[in-house]
Amino acid sequence: MSRTPTRAFHGERSNAYLSWLAIAVVAVVGGHALLDGRVHDVLFAATVVAVALVPAVALESKRAALPWEVTAVTVVPLLAAAIAPTFWSRQLVLYAGAGALALALTLEVHALTEIRLERWVAVAVVTMVSASIAAAWAMATWLWDLVAGTAVLASNTEVMWLLLAATVTGLSAGVCFDLYYRHFPGEELVSAPVDGIAENAFAIEAGIDGRPSLERRLPISGRTQCGLVQVLRFGMIAMVGYGAVTLDSGVVVNAAAMLGVTFVPTLLRRRYEIPFDSGLTLWITFVVFMHAIGSFYVYDRSFWWHNVTHPLSATLVGAVGYVAVRVADEHRDEIHLPPELTPAFVVVFVVAFGVFWEIGEFGFDLVADRTGLQMPLAQHGLDDTMSDILFNAIGAIVVARWGLAYLTDVTDAVTDRLEAWSVLDG
């Protein structure tokens, strides 16, 4: 029987030997980097070892391992960095290697869980995982610099090029992931249980159905919640009016856009019967109000307001990602995200979205520098960028851990509505 990607996880002795050899090489190189104080090399080596050990730990077998070709690809950036001529080139090579690690991790998820992904979705997932890995490295290095007083991350521009390199190579790795499976036409992107492992070993129920709605969980009545929504809307109307009187187009645009967002739940509830209760509507309205008042007055005068609004925004982004994947899961046979992976997907989705957003702001800055034009988005230095990513991650973890239950009725209603329209049936 021909060797396939999934069969490599099923205890091939030669594959396991080669994979363990690669892990040993990484451990030696990583240990040497630790002694030399090379932070990025240590982070990369630790990530390679963690990813490579997942099959052996999950399947409780020393012979369970990634295909050795994939393991070897993850080692190449570390070896290349060891001979890179400059500190900057070493950093760039390592961050570019995030794509290979993302490919390996995605392959493991396919082999060890009941996930199913259409190929274009798999490419997107590899890209998001690569961006998230790079963001985690950058956050860890930034925090190390703050604690140790070092400057491993020299500037915001340097960090953005590193994150961009990881994102581009992640996209390339996703395409390679797709091409890799095309060599095995009978091998679907879905798990095949290993001998001796029960099929339901990885099918863990999420346990989020049947929870009280957010409206009922809040310590105020639904009528009071609706009243607060109206108060916040009037506040944003006042901001629009002030901006119009003072001819401040930035205030007008920001406040008006945020005000428009607050009416989206109402529109969806009345027109399409999507059950946005008053608690969810208040949550959305509060988040956009915080952004509106920040743009209106606070952002330029207080650093902490920015750190409050980013995790709040991350909860909304995570909610959108959760609803999207649940709806796709229900309507596409080729897509299935097991409940135990849903929180992790939400976190990766939010962190990756934050990285893409920062790259977009960086692009605006480059255009502004070259043209002298004023751009709608801009970055304000290394600490600003890294704190944005850090607080995005915090917001993602909060909504993934505690917020998904409150979105169940909304996702079910969206699914039913799209089913009636037959929009996603394939």
UniProtKB/TrEMBL annotation:
Transmembrane region(s): 16-35, 41-59, 66-88, 94-113, 120-140, 160-181, 251-268, 280-299, 311-329, 341-360
InterPro entries assigned: YjdF-like
Keywords noted in UniProt: Membrane, Transmembrane, Transmembrane helix
Protein name: DUF2238 domain-containing protein
Native source organism of the sequence: Natrarchaeobius chitinivorans
